[in-house]
Amino acid sequence: MKTNIFVPQKIKVGFQNREDTYTKTLAFIIYFDAKGKLRQETSWEGWRNKKIDPVEYDNEPVSGFVLNKKVGDYKDGWNHRQAYTRVYDPRGFEFEITIENLLYILENTNSIKGKGLEGEFVYSWDGKNLILLPVDSPDYQEISQFNKVLHEKTYVKSKELVVGATYRTKDNQELVYMGRYDYWGTNWISGNGHKDSYYENVNKGKQYIFAKETINYRNKQDLYILNLKSMGDRIIETISSDCCERYAEMFDLLESKSCYSPYDESKDEYVYYDLKRFSEKVSNKVDKYAWHYGTTVYIENDKNSYAEVMGERDSTNYQIVVKRKVPSRWGSGYTNEDVVLFVGTLEEIWEQYKPRYRNEYLTNGKLYRTGDED
Which domain of life is it from (predicted)? Predict the structure, then answer.
């Protein structure tokens, strides 16, 4: 179970009269967050019977819960009702939990016929989803400790930050503080067609940068980044004031991020493919997918000179295709049309068009993106 589960100090229960329940009363339970704000109040108010007074409880461990019956898991037209299990609260009402929550409960406690669930439970939430959490579960201590820190509201202030130290966020992430730097973003500037449109670098000002190492979709080392204009209540605890052992490696990764140093088009580098690599890259893509799956190359040292090299239907030949702007057949304006420049072997295309890829660099000179990736 995730350890960023929120365990509130106080809950609020609204009711409906329901004949299909053992107690004739079905409950909708919501909670007060760490700031004392009642969450999910709008949907709760729309659901509950306002003729029945709601009740507030301290969310302390309680025993005596009993499993009742499964509800939902049916489809009516376009509507699908997810399966839930109804549970009896010893304070005299029933509520619903997900099947995933039920399975977790049964992994960590026993349900005794005629007596109900063994042990004590507290109400908790994962986002909007209520979770009945067994106090005897192995995750409870860690979740409880996280919530203790959260409720103490001893947020880390900016003047207390130490570069390289490790901190805990209110989402229970462990992140390393990298420092306070200019944070860069982009705005899309729309021109007359795609080739005249571009991204403009925008300095969003100094921000506090926290990070952790991760693996990206290309299975390469990367950074997850949390950027904060102000600290607020986002950082709740110092885990370690010592400098992270991999801070230097993490900073190298940060320096290759466009949020740290913006992309600089003037530093673009066009690199010619050798025949072996070009042939391998194009043929592998066609073999893996289909003849019409193209590999993007550049045929001049210009970002607008891109072309697609792809197979030809029912042939061992390949074709190199570019997009050209032509008058629209539907009236005014223009549209893009595929134009085949040449059909032949990969070696012939390589010799005639000198295909190349584009490496992109940041203002600080660090490689941002390489064009030669599968």
Answer: Bacteria
pLDDT the model gives residue 190: 83
Sign (positive or negative) of CA dihedral 42, 47, 51, 55:
negative
Tokens, residue 62 = 């309680």
- Classify residue 295 as exposed, middle or buried by CB count within 10 Å of its CB (0-12, 13-18, 19+): buried
User: Contact, 21 vs 86, CB < 8 A?
Assistant: yes
Q: Count of CB atoms within 10 A of residue 65's CB?
A: 23
Residues 55 and 347: their CA atoms lie apart, in Å, by 78
List of E strands, 190-276: 198-215, 221-228, 235-240, 269-272
Burial class of 332 by CB neighbour count within 10 A (0 to 12, 13 to 18, 19+): exposed
CA dihedral (91, 95, 100, 104) in degrees, to 10, reads 0
Q: Are 107 and 100 in contact, with CB atoms under 8 Å apart?
A: no
- Please state, rounded to an integer, the average pLDDT across all residues of the chain: 91
Q: What is the mean pLDDT of residues 263-275?
A: 96
**Nearest one of 34, 37, 41 to 8, comparing CA atoms:** 34
pTM of the model: 0.76
Q: Which residues, in sequence order, are bridge partners of residue 215?
A: 221
Q: Between vectors from CA 282 to CA 281 and to CA 285, what angle results, nearest 5°?
A: 85
What tokens were used for 68?
A: 């009742």
Give the pLDDT confidence of 112-131 residue by residue, as tens digits: 877 789 999 999 999 899 99
Q: Are 8 and 59 in contact (CB under 8 A)?
A: yes
Q: Are 249 and 341 in contact (CB under 8 A)?
A: no
DSSP β-ladder status, 166-169 and 318-327: unpaired
- Fill in the amino acid letter for 163: V
